[in-house]
Hints:
159 residues; mainly beta
Amino acid sequence: MGFAADGDGELDLEIETPGVPIGIELDGSLPLTSVYVGRQKISPRSKPFDSRRFDLTFQDPHGMAWADYNDDGAMDVFVNRGALGGTLKALPENVEKGIQDQLFVTSDGRLPYRNIATDVGIDKRGCSGRKVSWVDFDRDGLLDLFVNCQDRGNVYTQG
């Protein structure tokens, strides 16, 4: 881990191992109004942080596929993850389990999106995800998900 000051007035944290949780603890000398996480500039004062101590884990996203998964007329999205440069299987089990693919759905287009991947049986199973597509793989009229892993394909069917 290192820091970089690139002249834009911000101090950037550079991560060498993207999947390992990084514990951040801010002392009282730095106002939380001056600290932001990620490109969306989330403040530690907002959830999920809400304190001067929080953990960051970077998820290694690779592919996204949009479809109306729950047939409510609103678009839902599946996001697959890579394997952190081939290091995922070497990480402790609790870290590996934290790097999961996500299926975000809404109800009738209302926010917030909810991640239901685990609820519907999507399990990463060590897949170093690359591309993803919605298809009716088994021709039953329901959308299925094809995830192209680096070493194999995973198919998740509905119904």
